[in-house]
Write a structure and sequence with these properties.
This protein has 215 residues and is mostly helical. The chain contains nine helices and two strands; from the N terminus they run ααααααβαααβ. It comes from Rotaria sordida.
Length: 215
């Protein structure tokens, strides 16, 4: 199965990446950012776009894939090398192998076709659904999130919400149903529910997001 072309909904995901890059570059700091979440997203894009030069969909599609890969890798470079002294390793302590191994195993069990590219693509879908957990875990440990980090998380969450709306539309208009993408997308959106509430009730009202008072 060839992944569907990137469309305009992906601009919310691109916006999230740009927000994070600008936050790191302008503040010269990675404080509050989970390098592990960024690493998981980079792994997601690498596995999903391994066929980048094998299956040409459109120039737009290719450009967007390259932008995702390059921008996420640059973010990793900022976190682990250029601004590594500002990276909070103590709070970014989520064990990502607990996410990678189960999602990889599930990709071997539940996929559309038992082939290398298909399994890697399926793995990327499953992993993406939980890739934000290290960032959310880090926020829960520190008890708060900077406003710009909150915007980054919101952009990531709304990106997946838009995809759920797209799946509903395609089901009614095209009778198309992909349970792998749907289930993964729903799980990812559910993980954001509490964050969405705090974002709307606090950040949009000009207040800093704090979690400990809600625990």
């Amino acid at each position: 199965m060839v992944p569907p072309p990137v469309d305009k909904r992906d601009f919310s995901h691109l916006a999230a990446i740009i927000i994070l890059l600008l936050k790191i570059w302008t503040t010269r700091s990675c404080a509050g950012v989970s390098g592990k979440s960024v690493l998981l997203y980079d792994l997601v894009f690498i596995c999903r776009y391994l066929d980048l030069f094998l299956h040409h969909v459109s120039i737009y599609n290719t450009i967007m894939k390259v932008i995702y890969l390059v921008s996420t890798t640059v973010t990793l470079y900022f976190i682990y090398f250029k601004f590594k002294t500002t990276y909070d390793r103590n709070h970014d302590s989520f064990r990502i192998e607990l996410l990678i191994l189960p999602t990889l195993a599930l990709a071997f069990v539940w996929n559309h076709d038992f082939s290398v590219f298909e399994i890697l693509w399926t793995f990327s879908i499953y992993l993406e659904s939980v890739a934000i957990l290290p960032q959310l875990y880090m926020v829960s440990k520190t008890g708060e999130a900077e406003t710009i980090t909150s915007h980054y998380l919101f952009a990531l969450g709304i990106y997946r919400f838009f995809y759920i709306l797209n799946w509903i539309y395609r089901y009614y208009m095209e009778d198309y149903l992909d349970w792998i993408s749907i289930v993964s997308g729903v799980i990812q959106t559910v993980l954001y529910c509490d964050f969405f509430y705090l974002y709307i009730t606090k950040v949009l009202r000009g207040r800093k997001m704090r979690l400990r008072e809600n625990i």
